Each structure stands twice: as C-alpha cells, then as structure tokens.
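User: Hand in any protein.

Assistant:
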Amino acid sequence: MKRIPVIVLLKLLLLSCSEFEQSTIYVDQVSQPRICLNGVWKVTTHPPAAFWSDTTRFDAWQDIRVPGECAMQGIPIKHDEPFVYKTNVLIPNDYSGKSIFLQFDGVYSFARVWANGNRVREHHGGFTRWQCDITPFVQAGKAAIITVEVTDRIDDISCASGYAKHRIGGILRDVHLLALPKNFPHSISITADLDDEYKHAMLCVSGKLESPAADSRIELELIDDQGQSIKLNNPVFELDGSTFFSIQNSIKNPRLWDAEHPIPGGLKICHGR
C-alpha cells in the first residue's frame, strides 16, 4: 500500500504513557513534517501602523522566549492593548506540493496571524490548539515572515489574567510548522470504552478527510508496550469516495492502567492506497 501520512497517536485510554502529548507524523518524501518553532522571537508593545507588512523592520524589537508569558520576561503588557510578535521561518524544500500549517498550542487570549504580510486568520481562546493554513502565502525553500498580534482581552470569559493576578497574555504554549498531504485525516477522535465488568473494551476511531478519496483506505495498527502489533478484527476501512471514517474494534482483556502505573503503547493510523 502506498502510504500518504501515518499518524502515531499515543493518547489512548487503554494503552497509554506519560509522553503522549505529541503524536508522531510520517509524510511521504518529507524528512521533518513537524518543526518546532520555539525559541527567540521578536516582540513590541508599540507596534507600528503597518506592523503586519513583510517590509516592516523588526530586528531592533525586543527578544522574547516563545513559549512564555510576556510579564514573566519583563515585558509589560496591558489589557486590551495589542502587542506583536515576529519571526523568520525557513520553509524546507521538501514541503513543496504539501499543505503547510502553523500550529499554536495556546495563545492568550485573542490572536491574529499574518504570513509574509498576508492575513491568515484570527483566534479567540487561550489554552486550546489551533492551526493556520499558510500554504498560499509561503514558498518551499524560502524564508517566511510570521507575524502574530496578541491582545489580552479583559472581557475574556475565563479572565485567566485575573486568576493569575498578572497579565498572562502571549504565546504560552508550543508553536510548530507542519507539512501535510493535500488530503489527510483530521478531526480524529479515539475512545476506548470498557464494559461494565472492566474486562473488555471497544476501541472506536473516527475522523475526516479534506476531500473525497476514491480507491483509498484507512488502516489501524494497535501496538503494545513491547512494540508488538495487537491483532485487530477490523483494522481497515475502505473509504470508497467518503470523507468520513469510523472504525470499531473489540479489545479482549486489555491491560488497564492508572495515573501512577502508565502502560506505554500506541495506535498507528495510516491513510493510503
């Protein structure tokens, strides 16, 4: 089977470990489909009128560690007053022909994003993961200027800055650059419900594709704590032009775990032909 992406998800309810925060992604002919953008960015609390422009010089702006709160790095911010981050990101050559995303794991609380001076999207939240499709605005093999405007809104429903007793606005969690195929599984949901006697379980995996995919399939591989495959009674879902998939597998006598006794393992999801 020709593989397109393979996503290894380690966040299971039956087989789990303490290191499942990040899944592993395989994309055919891409050496590093997920690149961490954490590090030193530039920031200003007094952005110029055209701060979003790719011609705006920002080398003299203040350094800031991403992720991290501005206040904790000696950068004073105010409620409802935008401040702006900028950084240069090199788009690898092998990202050509792929869908290219920025992934933010948490920006508090209102953010707007530009790529090479082009507005991409906005997001209102704080501690949830979200993505920006920057494919139309960047070019493989060239550097891109990423601009993120952030506002710590005082009317935010959670008012996390109020709980913290200081303004926590900023890019608070990891940032990644992603390369994915033009058609890939997303919105993946994984549940593993035990029966009333906690002896057997039903593993349910569902998700969507970006567009209909004839002559393609979703394949599952469940992996135990020794790295060995666990036989599934229903490992394959033939898409047959559908954009939605849902696969159920009965798991007999699974090893159970709790927070003090995690069990490493994984689930591999493969979309291909």
Remarks:
- The chain has two domains: 3-26+182-272, 34-180.
- Residues 160-164 form the longest helix (5 residues).
